[in-house]
Write a structure and sequence with these properties.
Chain A is α+β, with helices and mostly antiparallel strands. Chain A has a domain at 249-300 and 335-392: Cytochrome Bc1 Complex, Chain D, domain 2 (Orthogonal Bundle). In chain A, 37% of the residues lie in helices and 15% in strands. Chain A is built from eleven helices and twelve strands. Chain A has helices spanning 3-20, 35-68, 84-113, 227-237, 249-260, 282-285, 313-320, 327-332, 342-350, 352-355, 382-392; strands at residues 120-127, 130-135, 147-150, 152-156, 161-167, 172-175, 182-185, 191-195, 201-206, 219-225, 302-303, 308-309. In chain A, the strands form four sheets. Chain A has a five-stranded mixed β-sheet, with no helix packed on it. The N and C termini of chain A lie far apart (64 Å). Chain B has 369 residues and is of the alpha+beta class. Among the domains of chain B are: 134-229, no CATH class; 259-367, Immunoglobulin-like. Chain B is 50% helix and 15% strand. Chain B is built from eight helices and ten strands. Chain B has helices at residues 4-26, 31-54, 75-91, 94-118, 124-161, 164-187, 193-217, 221-229, and strands spanning 261-266, 269-274, 277-281, 283-285, 292-298, 306-309, 324-326, 335-340, 352-356, 359-367. In chain B, the strands form two sheets. Chain B has a five-stranded mixed β-sheet, with no helix packed on it. Chain B has a five-stranded mixed β-sheet with strand order 4-10-9-6-7, with no helix packed on it. The longest helix of chain B is centred in the middle third of the chain and has 38 residues, at 124-161. Classes of the chains: A alpha+beta (396), B alpha+beta (369). At the A-B interface, strand 1, strand 5 and helix 6 of A face strand 4 of B. Bound molecules: copper (II) ion (CU). Copper (II) ion binds next to loops of chain A.
């Protein structure tokens, strides 16, 4: 074999082997963390094994034949055409194997499509390039008024949660590999996806249907909390708006927010100076008709389609690396001032489209009727950014 | 050595290249102009090539006599008419202007080619033949399209004027006549040309006359009324039957799955069924500014309409009526879908609900978080 070719093969196989044993692979489909994902795993393990064995047999047979009968100048052996018995056998065996696989596959598909054992529903709406979650009133879980959030899906462990997915613009697809397979979110339709987590933890996922410029930055996480922790989270999401202290930096930030941000972002309970509620109008400013609700921004720990951390590296590692019995408490602590990832949040406010490509150039808005496809560059002063960060930190 | 045709088309090509260069320099948005001129260049180049290869379509040597005898021509007249339309269009409407441009271009090209063909040789019939060879492939399809357009337009005017049952009779009669004429042509292939032409002319005149008469007398009454009052766009959402909106009811659905909720009017009560929730609900949650489909099913004796109250319209006028949308009146057992798209979250002074027309107490709250 040629020398460079040889080393190329070695490098290729070596990197394959190395890639297969990554220590931190949060989106690994071989590590189910809930019954739905286990169902899939129980199917794919044996299928993979059978396919692997057959693959090995075929590869071995091919290699043997290639070497044994390689051209050494011997005469061409007798040529035969067709051997019905052999051909029928070789058709029937794979057909039987596939039939057996099909039986189990259909069984799994029907189990995964069940909706009548649901314990909790969450509406999931995709748009370029983030996910919105809303929790309809469900008194059993203490949800007495609708909750709305984005990026991180918070759910109770050991509970059969049914996501009702749809989209505001193009087709997206929701996928948390540790908890279940994928389900497309299609405009105008509501499609369901079962999720259930065995243990508290944070499970990463990402949009798996190409949906435009920032598809790669459209990520999400499912945060499973113990039932008690989930109740605390629910209570906090329903807590009323806290007006920033008088004459604080945060209060000045609220004013900037009212001027600059409220035309897209809703903060429940926020009032205008004249005493009327500030109602956001994302339908007039954003192509999809929605922008994340920021009422409890600091209760999540990633932002902008879970593409960036709201937590600094150290605090993030503490939460994400926490064992399952304490991860809930750490998550519920939210983002405090010393844990805030100032760098990314400030960069976002300074120039969002630079951090995440979003077609937000005002010069190119003709085709979208003057509406942004993401958050635009707002030309804020550093002073305003300071005020805004102080204000956003109060949105616990 | 260079033929007249070659020089002419070569000139056109060069000029259009210049025009393209100039428009690239002058206009930012080239889309239409660029395409048009590029086609002109392509056509000019093609014709230049043809002129070279065919030596202007003649086998004329230097000593062939060209005839001075010219035939009568319609084209100066048509060119004049085109010019008038062009000028008229400048002060009246752009349709007239563009009509003038088209007539002018057509007449000028016909004129030019006729003039060229008349000097091709001394043989008049050969010259006529040359003209036909060049122009018939363009003239026939254009004239056919024009003729068809006139027939279709006239026929559509007639159909909009006569009432529905007369329309059906008319179709049968006209269809039969066409069939009879076709049969006649088929079984008598040696029929005199003039008879065939007369039959065709008669048909054409009949249709055009009918079209003109219909266009003058206007559309049939109900259509005129509907257009005037906008019945087909305006939904009347009251409990009583709406004369126009409730016409032609669609009470079956092809898409049943993947809707957000099914709203059922059952046992004197309005309930919502939502996939994943086993108990019937009295409220549904709809994402803000997102087209959301629901199905209304009437399971009660009688005809009912589902109405959605979309809150106060956007105008600041606090006293104005709420915006509504609704299904048609649905019979017992029937169902229909309705699409909700609500841009604002529900709040103290903006709440949304679904209810049965005429019975507002039968309702489902629509929550928009
Ligand atoms: Cu997506």
């Amino acid at each position: 074999m040629h020398k460079t070719l040889k080393s190329a093969v070695v490098v290729f196989v070596g990197s394959l082997v190395a890639a297969s044993c990554a220590t931190n692979a949060p989106q690994d489909t071989w590590q189910p963390k809930g019954p739905n994902a286990k169902l899939i795993d129980d199917l794919q393990q044996p299928v993979f094994a059978v396919a692997g064995i057959i693959g090995l047999i075929v590869a071995a047979a091919v290699t043997y034949t290639v070497i044994k009968y390689r051209d050494r100048g011997q005469p061409i052996p007798e040529q035969t055409h067709g051997k019905p018995a052999l051909e029928i056998t070789l058709t029937v065996i794979p057909a039987l194997i596939l039939a057996v696989v099909a039986v189990f596959t259909f069984g799994a598909i029907f189990k995964l499509a069940k909706t009548d054992d649901t314990e909790m529903i969450i509406n999931v709406t995709g748009q370029q390039w983030w996910w919105e979650y809303d929790y309809p009133v469900q008194n059993e879980f203490g949800i007495t008024s609708p909750i709305i959030s984005s990026g991180q899906l918070v759910m109770p462990v050991g509970t059969k949660v049914l996501l009702r997915e749809t989209s505001r613009d193009v087709i997206h697809s929701y996928w948390i590999p540790a908890l279940n397979g994928k389900r497309d979110a299609v405009p105008g339709r509501v499609q369901t996806l079962r999720l259930e987590a065995d243990e508290p933890g944070i499970y990463a996922g990402q949009c798996t249907e190409f949906c435009g410029l920032s598809h790669a930055n459209m990520r999400m996480e499912a945060v499973a909390l113990s039932k008690e922790d989930f109740a605390k989270w629910v209570a906090n999401q329903q807590a009323p708006y806290v007006v920033p202290a008088k004459d604080s930096l945060a209060q000045q930030g609220e004013t900037v927010f009212l001027n600059q941000c409220v035309r897209c972002h809703q903060v429940n309970g926020l009032m205008r100076a004249d005493g009327t509620p500030a109602i956001a109008a994302p339908d007039e400013n954003v192509w999809s008709g929605a922008a994340p609700n920021l009422s409890h921004l600091m209760s999540r720990n990633t932002f902008a389609g879970a593409a960036f951390d709201l937590l600094s590296k150290k605090c993030r590692d503490e939460v994400w690396g926490a064992p399952s019995n304490v991860v809930g408490a750490k998550y519920l602590a939210g983002v405090t001032e010393d844990c805030l990832n100032q760098k990314d949040l400030r960069a976002w406010l300074r120039n969002a489209p630079e951090m995440k490509p979003m077609y937000a150039n005002p010069a190119d808005l003709e085709i979208s009727n003057g509406k942004y496809r993401g958050m635009p560059y707002l030309a804020l002063s550093e002073d305003d950014i300071n005020k805004l960060v102080a204000y956003l930190l109060t949105l616990k | 050595m260079f033929s007249t045709g070659f020089k002419y088309f070569f000139g056109v090509t060069v000029l259009s290249v210049v025009a393209l260069v100039m428009s690239v320099a002058l206009f930012k948005n080239l889309a239409l102009i660029g395409v048009a001129i590029t086609f002109l260049i392509a056509a000019g180049a093609l014709l230049t090539g043809l002129a070279i290869i065919t030596s202007d379509g003649t086998t004329r040597d230097a000593n062939v006599q060209t005839s001075d005898m010219t035939t009568q021509s319609l084209w100066p007249l048509v060119t004049g008419i085109g010019t008038v339309f062009l000028a008229l269009g400048l002060v009246t409407s752009s349709i007239v202007f563009f009509g003038g441009v088209v007539v002018l271009l057509a007449a000028l090209s016909e004129w030019m080619i006729q003039a060229w063909s008349e000097r091709a040789s001394s043989d008049a019939s050969h010259n006529a033949e040359a003209r036909k060879r060049l122009l018939n492939p363009i003239e026939f399809p254009v004239l056919a399209a024009l003729g068809l357009g006139v027939v279709i337009f006239a026929f559509s005017r007639i159909m909009l004027t006569v009432d529905k049952s007369t329309g059906a009779v008319l179709f049968i009669v006209v269809g039969t006549l066409v069939l009879v004429a076709g049969t006649l042509f088929a079984i008598k292939p040696n029929m005199k040309r003039s008879v065939g032409a007369a039959i065709c002319a008669l048909g054409a005149i009949g249709i055009i006359a009918g079209g003109v008469a219909s266009a003058v007398s206007g559309e049939r009454e109900e259509l005129a009324l509907a257009a005037e009052e906008g019945h087909f766009t305006h939904k009347e959402c009251g409990p009583e039957e709406s004369e126009y909106f409730d016409k032609l009811k669609e009470e079956t659905l092809s898409l049943r799955s993947a809707v957000s909720a099914t709203i059922i009017y059952q046992d004197g009560e309005l309930i919502a069924k939502i996939q994943g929730l086993n108990k019937p609900q009295k409220s549904i949650t709809v994402p803000r500014s997102n087209a959301t489909n629901i199905i209304f099913r009437n399971a009660t004796e009688g005809e009912f309409r589902l109405v959605v109250d979309l809150g106060k319209p956007k105008t600041e006028d606090k006293d104005s009526d709420h915006d509504v949308d609704c299904t048609q009146l649905i019979e017992t057992g029937g169902e229909q879908s309705l699409t909700l798209k609500i841009p604002k979250s529900s709040s103290a002074d903006n709440h949304y609900k679904l209810f049965i027309a005429g019975a507002e107490d039968k309702q489902i709250i629509v929550v928009v978080p």
